[in-house]
Amino acid sequence: MRVAGLLLAAGAGRRFGSPKALVPLHGKLFVDSAAELLRAAGCDPVVVVLGAQAAEVRRQATLQGVTVVDNPHWATGMGSSLRTGLHAVGTADAVVVLPVDTPGVTVEALHRLMALAEPSVLARATYDGEIGHPVLIGSDHFAGVMASAAGDQGARDYLQSNTVRHVDCADVADGADVDRPEDLRRRTGGA
Questions:
Q1: How far apart are alpha carbons 138 and 171 in whole angstroms?
Q2: Whole-structure pTM over 0.85, yes or no?
């Protein structure tokens, strides 16, 4: 099975105060760490969707071994980035979708979802019973996800109206989003 990786890194990060793609953690930008994570898990290809401050992200980030695409409609929300990314993935049996602001996701969590990869599957990580990321979308669902992805909902409506396998990843990862600077400070123990 060929499993692509799709990194959604186009948002302006309004609650954070800057695009989260440009947030540094442990000496690397979020966008580079997440792209490297998808590559390390064996995703092929890895597609990174940029939007807000795309030129600055390209200037600062490494983004090696990945396909970078711009979402000209990034300001309309995550749905347009999901559509842009799925178009760019090309032929794959499934895609693992990861938002750039989930630095606690690990290769082990990605592998748990990727082990389920087949064209008909939908799966998502859970953490202590709470749904989270990453999400695995089989190729049979690409058209339906693209048709329903709107605003900041991404694939949420499509996933709610279809059978989705939940994969517990709490023992190998942290699926918490970093939405605000204080979320990052809590993660790093810094002030």
A1: 25
A2: yes
- For the chain, the average pLDDT equals 94
What span, in angstroms and rounded, lies between the C-alpha atoms of 77 and 93? 26
State the Cα angle at 146 between 156 and 122, rounded to 5°: 55
Which of these, 126, 124, 162, lies nearest to 143 by C-alpha position? 162
- Compute, in degrees rounded to 10, the torsion defined by CA atoms 30, 35, 36, 40: 140
DSSP labels for 131-165? EEEEEEEEGGGHHHHHHH--GGGTTHHHHHTS--E
CA nearest to 54, candidates 65, 70, 67, 74: 70
Tens of pLDDT along 159-183? 999 999 999 999 999 988 998 989 8
3-state DSSP assignment of residue 87: helix
Which residue, among 171, 178, 30, has the nearest Cα to 112 in the 3D structure?
171
Nearest to 95 by CA among 61, 161, 152, 146: 146
Q: What is the pLDDT of residues 108-144, one digit of tens each?
A: 999 999 999 999 999 999 999 999 999 999 999 999 9
